[in-house]
Amino acid sequence: MIYWEEFYVIHHLVKEKHLMGKILIGINMEYIRTEDKPFEWGVAKAAELGYEYLEPMVHWGRELLSEAGYFHSVSMLDDPMRIRKACEQYKVKPSALSAHCPICKPDASTDYLKQAVRFAAECGAPVICTDEGPKPSWSTQEEDFAFMRYVLKEAALVAEPRGIKIGIEPHQQYTVKPDLYDKIIDLAGSPAVGANFDTGNSYLAGQDPYAWLEKVKHKLIHLHAKDISVKQSDAERGTVTGTPVGCACGDGVIDWAKVIAICKTIPQDIVFSVECGTVEQAARSIKHLKSLI
């Protein structure tokens, strides 16, 4: 016979298991940064490698390399359906848009993030990723936090009705400090703003990425799966706040089994968006992560 106390314990455990989210594997389009190929080529290659999700990079205005088909970034002056159609053609989904701009600089980032949110909503990306810097050379920390609150509040007002999340990444002078990272995420007082945690940047900044991820997991909406080579770790850890891309997942210092174990305890699905620098590294990354997940 099961007593009521035992029934409630069993029911709670079953409910928790039912609510446990999935870990999904995506690729940041920076993996073709040296291939001199357009966005659509990168989408096709990601699908060929077995990725189900990808993270396009967007920019404002026009620039030569992307317009000529030699770079993967997509202009937000283009039709957002360009991303949606390419993803549908190759049966992949956008996990987020890489829409980085310095939210410490309202003149550069307020309208940019609003446009990125609208673009994401139409192309089918549930998250836009950004960070805080670099900051103005003349401003104080107090002023910077006022600037960031303004930008995030304005962007959140556009994101909330569209169901888009804004993922703040540890990458610059403030976000690589766990307490300040939490404060920045909470500045707008909006459920639309959350954590796009970066394993590699947090490690290079001298933090414990596992303890930090455990601390912030309740705010996690997206994860940059970035590994750091032993060589880069020895040369840069504690002296930088981040790096554009890492090595193949499994080749560096990040314990992916530990990262996965932490993320398996949260209720929502999380995409691990691999940040590496070559197609070959992307192929090895997905093989390693799939073996663990």
Beta content comes to 15-25%
Helix fraction bin: 40-55%
CATH superfamily: Divalent-metal-dependent TIM barrel enzymes
Largest sheet: 9 strands, parallel
Look up the CATH topology. Answer: TIM Barrel
> Which architecture would the CATH scheme give at its second level?
Alpha-Beta Barrel
Spell the H/E element sequence. Answer: HEHEEHEHEEHEHEHEHHEHHEH
DSSP summary: helix tally: 12
What is the C-alpha radius of gyration, as a whole number of Å? 19 Å
**Number of strand elements:** 11
Query: Which regions are unreliable across 5 or more consecutive residues at pLDDT < 50?
Result: 1-18
Average pLDDT metric: 94
| Morphology | globular
End-to-end span in angstroms? Answer: 37 Å
SSE class: alpha/beta
Structure characterization notes:
The protein has 293 residues and is of the alpha/beta class. The protein has one domain: Divalent-metal-dependent TIM barrel enzymes (TIM Barrel), CATH 3.20.20.150. The protein is 44% helix and 16% strand. The protein has twelve helices and eleven strands. It has helices at 4-19, 39-49, 64-67, 81-89, 106-123, 141-159, 178-185, 199-204, 209-216, 230-236, 256-263, 279-292; strands spanning 23-28, 53-55, 58-59, 74-75, 93-94, 97-102, 127-131, 165-168, 193-198, 220-225, 270-274. Strands 5-2-1-11-10-9-8-7-6 form a nine-stranded parallel beta sheet. Helix 5 packs parallel to helix 6. The protein is globular, with a radius of gyration of 19 Å. The protein starts with a helix and ends with a helix.
